[in-house]
Amino acid sequence: MQPIYSSYELQEYVALEIARLYSIEYSEPFFVVVGSYSNFDIVSSSKKITIELKCETSPLRTGNVCIEFWNTSLDKPSGILGTKATIWVHIVLEKEGLIAYEYDIHTLRKVVIEQGVIRSNGRNSLCKIISLEVFRKFAKRSFQFQSRFKNDIENQGRVELNV
Fold first, then answer.
1. How far apart are CA 5 and CA 54, in angstroms?
2. What is the spatial distance between Cα 136 and Cα 58, in angstroms, rounded to a whole number?
3. Interval 126-154: pLDDT, tens
4. From residue 103, how far is each of 8, 44, 75, 130, 151 by CA, in Å?
């Protein structure tokens, strides 16, 4: 089945949904960063809360999550080691649907340093492959993510959404 949206369009829509959820929770506006900006993906109007957002479908198949940490082309930190965000939200496709895992950045950095196996993404970065079981254990919280784009995310199949 041909995807209705490109992976980049879908990423922006998912980010808008997460921004809405956090806006309601924190009672302040949240904004989605559109375009090439590597510090974070979503920011509160007070700028006290910044969110890095990732969405991945492969854990349903593999039982693992993939967390980028190093850009080999630029020889510098990226992903979890490069973000300036205060919160990391990782949406994972599981049997139960889309589950969002929220992490404090420092906690997730520690997990990535101490857990998992290093792999290349085949392009320009190094990632840690961490079992979903271990990943769940260290999350600050998790919640069912109700997205009107759930079917589109599932149809992306092997495409990993990196907002």
1. 17
2. 15
3. 999 999 999 999 999 999 998 887 777 77
4. 23, 17, 26, 14, 25
